[in-house]
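In response to the reviewer comment on reproducibility (Comment 2.3), we provide here a single inverse folding case reported in full, input and output, so that an independent group could reproduce the run without further information from us. The structure tokens appear first.
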């Protein structure tokens, strides 16, 4: 029997005033309603390294890629995530810390105000699969550092197999963690969905399931989809099926971006290939709706991606900091600096017709690498990455 444990790891709310709801809407296209901008994610508060200007007058939340995000007890929870917080430094310029992984936890009340919290996670973590449940925000895998914030230039990033609920107790105003059986292997950038109280998670070539009503039974290995292994895919559960969309994989010939999509029916233990996406939605978001799926964000500029990968391979063949190394690194930096962002069009999938259609545009820079959250049945986008190395602190809700 797998051991389960519960742990309360943060204890108090500060006495400061809550951040107010930020008014304003932006049109999302003729096939959608309007998006409301909620209060942006508050600044990180853990001054863990001198290179991070926490507490400086100009210090702001830069935004977080791969945050934990979900809803419990009517409150929105955002935690962890990764960014590049050093001033004048980016993902491709020399910096002290590399990519920083955080462990701060933020809680927004039902009225749209961030509560003044001092919550932290035991580990810094990003790029986990996240799902909102009545038991808490279910967090699966991810990567980061044990013990608190750290940077990829200071220590090797570790992948996790941890699975836990993250929940908010409104009465005691506390964040709690309840551990579940660990995944069969470490993984980050996985996707997950819950069908009939069973969570399904896919990453690489693996597909696993855990009965949340009886977690002591442990994880079960299931037949994988009839397509290539992949990571950074998009997933969601809808109407008794788990959907796996897009993703990318690395082959001997280079990176391959996928447009194929699959639906898994647990009661039949079978996969079915569904209509291909119009374009790849790698690292995007998929929301279950009353009539299917709403998909937004993701990266489909394959030419730009391949150019970056080509120059990266050429750079890494040169001695570090040699003229040849700097030549290729400058090209990569130039491409990053002129990156125009991810896919703006939103897609809807109709299961009855097995078809995709465009459904307007996302208001502003579209996100990637952030979980899809439903709050009172409304899609919510919490922070995320808007181009390589660049994050946004915005939180938007679809009316």
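Designed residues, in position order:
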């Amino acid at each position: 029997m797998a051991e389960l444990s519960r742990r309360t790891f943060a204890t108090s709310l500060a006495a400061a005033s809550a951040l107010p709801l930020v008014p304003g809407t932006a049109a999302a296209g003729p096939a959608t309603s309007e998006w409301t901008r909620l209060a942006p994610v508050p600044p990180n508060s853990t001054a863990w390294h001198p290179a991070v200007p926490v507490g400086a007058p100009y210090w702001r939340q830069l935004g977080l890629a791969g945050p934990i995000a979900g809803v419990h007890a009517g409150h929105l929870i955002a935690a962890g995530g990764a960014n590049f917080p050093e001033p004048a430094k980016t993902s491709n310029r020399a910096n002290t810390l590399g990519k920083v992984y955080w462990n701060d936890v933020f809680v927004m009340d039902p009225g749209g105000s961030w509560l003044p919290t001092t919550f932290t996670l035991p580990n810094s973590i990003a790029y986990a699969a996240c799902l909102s449940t009545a038991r808490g925000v279910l967090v699966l895998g991810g990567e980061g550092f044990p013990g608190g914030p750290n940077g990829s230039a200071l220590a090797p990033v570790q992948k996790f197999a941890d699975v836990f609920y993250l929940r908010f107790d409104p009465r005691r105003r506390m964040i709690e963690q309840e551990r579940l059986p660990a995944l069969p292997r470490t993984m980050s950038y996985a996707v997950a969905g819950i069908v009939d109280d069973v969570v399904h998670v896919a990453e690489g070539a693996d597909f696993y399931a855990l009965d949340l009503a009886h977690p002591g039974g442990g994880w079960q290995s299931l037949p994988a989809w009839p397509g290539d292994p992949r990571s950074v895919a998009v997933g969601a559960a809808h109407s008794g099926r788990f959907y796996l969309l897009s993703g990318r994989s690395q082959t001997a010939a280079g990176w391959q971006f996928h447009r194929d999509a699959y639906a898994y029916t647990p009661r039949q233990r079978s996969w079915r290939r569904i209509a291909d996406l119009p374009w790849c939605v790698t690292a995007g978001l998929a929301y279950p709706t009353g009539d299917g799926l709403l998909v937004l964000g993701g990266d489909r500029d394959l030419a730009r991606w391949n150019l970056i990968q080509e120059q990266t391979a050429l750079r890494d063949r040169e001695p570090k900091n040699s003229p040849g190394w700097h030549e290729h690194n400058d090209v990569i930096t130039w491409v990053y600096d002129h990156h125009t962002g991810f896919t703006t069009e939103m897609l809807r999938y109709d299961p009855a017709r097995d078809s995709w259609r465009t459904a307007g545009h996302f208001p502003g820079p579209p996100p990637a690498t952030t979980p899809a959250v439903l709050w009172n049945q409304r899609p919510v986008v919490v922070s995320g990455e808007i181009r390589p190395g660049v994050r946004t602190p915005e939180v938007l809700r679809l009316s």
